[in-house]
């Protein structure tokens, strides 16, 4: 470990903090995924708070204040707290959120009572245990790093070995049980992994902020990949990046590490949520807007065609009363259609240009095709279970199947 | 309340149709749930919105009461834009969207029907409580009024919801899948209740999927499969031909040409 | 007024203020949102201090209220993207805001009396010494402050009783009927924030959160009616205040912590022995079968759509 620290071109303390933050990021990222994907990430919040009575119990029981003893205490109490949450919410009346809340506040109150109780005898010990609340990265020792590193490696190894059963249990616990997997053991393993991540991280970022470290990497990774194995890797990397960036900024600017890491994490996660290709908010908003515009344009085009079928080219006012659309939307659509060159203006009357006639024809064809699909689609044997895009069936079905479909609807018993 | 009073609220013969939908398009993610749907439900009918799974029946109702924003098109209730006419509608949502564990009594739930007319903050008046008692009596739940809502059976819960809608005193009642998860006997008795309500001059619009009961109990049907297949009096709109178009392969045929339901 | 009495009254008033709100948080499944809001107000307090150098109650409450709203809207917006589940959205937003607050305290407000520890643990033991001159008598300022908040919460409950009831029970219905569940929810959480902030300096965040959650959860195990639910929740708050102070004195430990512990003990007793829902009571009632009760998955009681007649709340 010392050699690794020497390799980093930073002061000794800063290097220790950096390594600690990276280990924390990887562990929280990979192990936190098993809570976030089960929508139980706030259990992590309760367990982080339960670390406080955990370290107090360990201290009272052994009198020792070394990293290993306190970590064991935090872990044991964490598992107990997790078990209690399960028991409370599974007896029916109390919902999961209240169960988590009760365990969180109950254990934390216990921790505070123990802490103040200890403080009466020895103030220095209280100060040491106190760091578990807000975290104190600067207080990390090389021996802490070794413990953190070993714990992290061991739990990552567990994930690698038990990846398949964990994946099944994560996705569908009842199915896992039905195929004979040890469901209880797997649940316990997932809880234990959460506890380990917390034990690794809580010294650095503190009990209150720890939950963000469990969530950020998985939320980020989920926007970028849809495969569990990739997700775990990406989450680990995201955690490491967030941890290292946060610790570098904090040591550079001289502000507390835990909060900075959490802020960096939030920025990273939000960037992923907003910008993720094909999935992010920006992309989706764009799609919805263009979808609305398209629906409106096509609707108005059909309205216009209907009007032209039954009489002379209408004015905007006539078209509005005919279609019953709000005038603002109608004018917007007409502007769009003008720009696309499908309209022909004849004074204040509107008709279709040659492009427009063709566009209307395509539209009507597509609609006919979709109507045919809704009526007779069940007769068509598709090559796979894929469901065609209703807006452009010819493109997704191919010409042969499309013609078959049209044959059914035109000549078949349907009409 | 007297039937005459109900008639005044918009019974048969009112000029505007209870529900008019024009060119409604709404979509979930990529695929449209409703496409250029036109529909007209006259005032004073017991109307069913029918169609296969995924036809957009509930979506249509939700768009009508403003719970979802359509991509295009609009909805008129009694001739006015839906947004302005929500006080004319009593909407009964699907029952699984409700917290049955909630600590309220049957009577308190029915009282909620008076909340809109009472407005924010102000309390219910004597007249409101009268409405509540009458609604409870109408669905024959008076003796259950003090029960916690979760203690009731599925059919009883639905009665409470219908009572709440009755207490709203609105001329148009819209129910989303009111018969899901209730047994046959209960369904029959609920249907009887809805017919009774219709006879007091209200329009009752029900999202439903059992063609058989629509034929025997309803007088108007909107047959939907993403777009409107047919809309009109039951005998016309539920023609074998229209049903085949709506249900496609799920509609088998019996010897006498009657359409049989497999789905 | 004796110091003991002042502390017990302070905690009791807090128990009342929180006990009025808690049941609705439990029923709306927003328990953890209240925890989030209680943490997220920290940057508001710090910001007011940095901008105005003030720790006066009103500006601080406004600043905190602002961040409570930011927290709630932020969580809603992130969840509304459909990309992040509600739990993760909560756990993403409130630590971020809290982190902002911590950074604000350590960089801009260090050295002044804006002690992080006391924000969390509180120092209720000192409330008798922070006094106001009121009506000619010296009194601990936590008392009139918390009394005002209690009255405010009570007024909200009385005025919005039917709105709270309808939007919690059936949000879809109340939305269609002009009672926006979002608006009601926001008002409720602002009340939570104001309560939390007012109580912070006297009792600390953790006791506020405890008093919001635990008494209400306890009451939820004991009654199926709304009004008794609120009443029992307030009563449990008072039991925690009195019992907690007594045991804290006996143990010479944190008063806020001891009160939290007593509340948790109340919950545990209700959980085990509630006449209707206690697990021991139920085990005794149908002696043979305790295992189905503990089987995985939420039990179907509160879900609708089950076949008619099969619903039975007592399971």
| Discrete helix count of chain A | 19
CATH topology label of chain B: Rossmann fold
Sheet with most strands: strand arrangement of chain B = 6-7-8-3-9-10
- Per the CATH scheme, the topology name of the largest domain in chain A is ABC transporter involved in vitamin B12 uptake, BtuC
Nearest-integer average pLDDT of chain B: 83
Q: Output the radius of gyration of chain A.
A: 31 Å
Count of folded domains of chain B:
1
Distance between the termini of chain A: 80 Å
Counting structural domains of chain A, the number is 3
Total DSSP helices of chain B: 10
- Based on secondary structure, the structural category of chain A is mainly alpha
Task: Assign the CATH superfamily of chain B.
Answer: P-loop containing nucleotide triphosphate hydrolases
Largest sheet of chain B: 6 strands, mixed
Structural notes for this entry:
The complex is a heterotrimer of chains A (415), B (263) and C (315). Chain A is elongated, with a radius of gyration of 31 Å. Chain A has 3 domains: 210 residues, ABC transporter involved in vitamin B12 uptake, BtuC (Orthogonal Bundle), CATH 1.10.3470.10; 54 residues; 54 residues, no CATH class. With 415 residues, chain A is mainly alpha-helical. Chain A has 19 helices and 2 strands. In chain A, a hairpin with a 2-residue loop joins β1 and β2. In chain A, α3 packs antiparallel against α11 and α4 packs antiparallel against α5. With 263 residues, chain B is α/β, with parallel strands linked by helices. In chain B, 33% of the residues lie in helices and 25% in strands. In chain B, the strands form 3 sheets. Chain B has a 6-stranded mixed β-sheet with strand order 6-7-8-3-9-10, sandwiched between helices. In chain B, strands 2-1-4-5 form a 4-stranded antiparallel β-sheet, with helices on one face. A two-stranded antiparallel ribbon of chain B has the order 11-12. In chain B, α5 crosses α6 and α6 runs parallel beside α7. The radius of gyration of chain B is 18 Å and the shape is globular. Chain B starts with a helix and ends with a strand. The relative contact order of chain B is 0.18. The N terminus and C terminus of chain B are likely disordered. Chain C has 315 residues and is mainly α. Chain C has one domain: ABC transporter involved in vitamin B12 uptake, BtuC, CATH 1.10.3470. Chain C contains 15 helices and 2 strands. In chain C, α1 packs antiparallel against α10, α2 crosses α4 and α3 crosses α4. The C terminus of chain C is likely disordered.
């Amino acid at each position: 470990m010392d050699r690794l620290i020497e390799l980093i071109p930073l002061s000794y303390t800063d290097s220790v903090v950096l390594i600690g933050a990276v280990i924390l990021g990887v562990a929280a990222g990979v192990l936190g995924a098993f809570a976030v994907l089960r929508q139980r990430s706030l259990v992590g919040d309760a367990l982080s708070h339960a670390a406080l009575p955990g370290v107090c119990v360990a201290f009272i029981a052994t009198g020792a204040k070394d990293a290993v003893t306190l970590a064991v205490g935090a872990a044991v109490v964490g598992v107990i707290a997790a078990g209690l949450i399960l028991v409370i919410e599974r007896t029916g009346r109390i919902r999961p959120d209240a169960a988590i809340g009760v365990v969180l506040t109950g254990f934390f109150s216990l921790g505070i009572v123990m802490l103040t109780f200890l403080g009466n005898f020895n103030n220095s010990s209280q100060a040491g245990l106190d760091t578990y609340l807000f975290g104190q990265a600067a207080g990390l020792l090389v021996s802490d790093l070794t413990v953190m590193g070993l714990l992290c490696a061991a739990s990552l190894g567990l994930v690698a070995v038990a990846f398949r059963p964990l994946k099944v249990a994560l996705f569908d616990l009842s199915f896992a049980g039905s195929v004979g997997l040890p469901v209880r053991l797997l649940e316990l393993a997932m809880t234990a992994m959460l506890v380990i991540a917390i034990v690794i991280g809580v010294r650095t970022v503190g009990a209150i902020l720890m939950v963000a470290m469990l969530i950020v990497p998985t939320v980020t990774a989920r926007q970028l990949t849809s495969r569990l194995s990739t997700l775990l890797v990406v989450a680990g990397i995201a955690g490491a990046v967030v941890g290292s960036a946060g610790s570098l900024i904090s040591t550079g600017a001289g502000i507390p590490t835990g909060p900075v890491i959490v802020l960096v994490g939030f920025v990273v996660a939000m960037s992923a949520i907003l910008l993720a290709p094909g999935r992010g908010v920006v992309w989706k908003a764009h799609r919805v807007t263009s979808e609305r515009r398209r629906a409106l344009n096509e609707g108005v085009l059909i309205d216009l065609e209907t009007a032209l079928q039954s009489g002379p080219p209408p004015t905007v006012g006539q078209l509005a009363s005919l279609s019953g659309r709000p005038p603002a939307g109608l004018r917007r659509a007409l502007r769009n259609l003008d720009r696309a060159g499908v309209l022909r203006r004849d004074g204040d009357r509107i008709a279709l240009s040659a492009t427009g006639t063709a566009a209307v024809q395509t539209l009507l064809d597509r609609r006919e095709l979709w109507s045919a699909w809704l009526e007779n689609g069940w007769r068509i044997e598709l090559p796979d279970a894929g469901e065609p895009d209703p807006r452009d069936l010819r493109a997704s079905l191919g010409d042969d199947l499309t013609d078959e479909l049209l044959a059914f609807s035109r000549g078949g018993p349907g009409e | 309340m007297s039937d005459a009073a109900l008639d005044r609220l918009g019974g048969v013969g009112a000029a505007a149709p209870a529900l008019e939908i024009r060119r409604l398009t709404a979509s979930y993610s990529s695929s449209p749930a409703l496409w250029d749907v036109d529909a007209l439900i006259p005032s004073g009918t017991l109307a069913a919105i029918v169609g296969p799974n995924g036809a957009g029946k509930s979506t249509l109702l939700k768009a009508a009461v403003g719970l979802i924003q359509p991509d295009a098109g609009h909805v008129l209730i009694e001739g006015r834009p839906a947004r302005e006419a929500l006080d004319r509608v009593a909407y009964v949502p699907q029952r699984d969207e409700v917290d049955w564990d909630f600590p309220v009594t049957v009577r308190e739930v029915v009282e909620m029907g008076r909340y809109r007319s009472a407005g924010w903050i102000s309390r219910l008046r004597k007249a409101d409580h009268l409405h509540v008692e009458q609604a409870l009596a109408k669905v024959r739940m008076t003796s259950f009024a003090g029960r916690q809502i979760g203690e009731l059976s599925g059919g009883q819960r639905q009665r409470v919801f219908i009572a709440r809608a009755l207490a709203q005193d609105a001329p148009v009642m819209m129910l989303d899948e009111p018969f899901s998860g209730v047994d046959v006997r209960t369904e029959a008795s609920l249907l009887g209740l809805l017919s009774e309500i219709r006879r007091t001059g209200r329009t009752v619009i029900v999202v439903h999927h059992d063609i058989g009961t629509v034929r025997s109990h309803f007088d108007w049907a909107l047959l939907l499969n993403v777009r409107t297949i047919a809309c009109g009096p039951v005998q016309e709109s539920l023609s074998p031909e229209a049903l085949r178009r709506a249900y496609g392969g799920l509609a088998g045929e019996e010897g006498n040409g009657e359409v049989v339901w497999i789905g | 007024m004796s110091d003991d009495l002042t502390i017990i009254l302070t905690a009791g008033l807090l128990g009342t203020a929180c006990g009025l709100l808690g049941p609705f948080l439990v029923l709306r499944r927003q328990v953890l949102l209240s925890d989030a809001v209680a943490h997220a107000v920290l940057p508001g307090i710090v910001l007011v201090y940095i901008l105005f150098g003030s720790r006066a109650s009103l500006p601080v409450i406004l600043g905190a209220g602002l961040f409570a709203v930011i927290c709630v809207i932020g969580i809603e917006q992130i969840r509304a993207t459909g990309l992040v589940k509600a739990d993760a959205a909560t756990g993403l937003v409130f630590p971020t805001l809290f982190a902002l607050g911590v950074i604000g305290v350590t960089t801009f407000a260090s050295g002044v009396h804006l002690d992080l520890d006391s924000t969390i643990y509180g120092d209720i033991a000192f409330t008798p010494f922070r006094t106001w001159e009121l009506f000619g008598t010296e009194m601990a300022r936590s008392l009139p402050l918390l009394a005002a908040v209690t009255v405010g919460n009570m007024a909200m409950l009385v005025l919005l009783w039917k709105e709270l009831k309808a939007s919690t029970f059936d949000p879809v219905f109340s939305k269609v009927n002009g009672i926006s569940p979002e608006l009601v929810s926001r008002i409720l959480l602002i009340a939570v924030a104001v309560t939390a902030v007012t109580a912070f300096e006297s009792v600390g965040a953790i006791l506020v959160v405890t008093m919001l959650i635990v008494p209400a959860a306890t009451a939820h195990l004991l009654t199926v009616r709304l009004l008794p639910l609120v009443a029992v929740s307030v009563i449990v708050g008072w039991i925690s205040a009195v019992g907690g102070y007594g045991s804290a004195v006996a143990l010479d430990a944190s008063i806020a912590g001891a009160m939290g512990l007593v509340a948790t003990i109340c919950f545990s007793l209700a959980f085990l022995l509630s006449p209707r829902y206690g697990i021991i009571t139920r085990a005794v009632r149908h002696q043979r079968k305790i295992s189905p009760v503990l089987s995985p998955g939420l039990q179907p009681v509160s879900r609708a759509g089950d076949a008619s007649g099969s619903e039975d709340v007592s399971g």
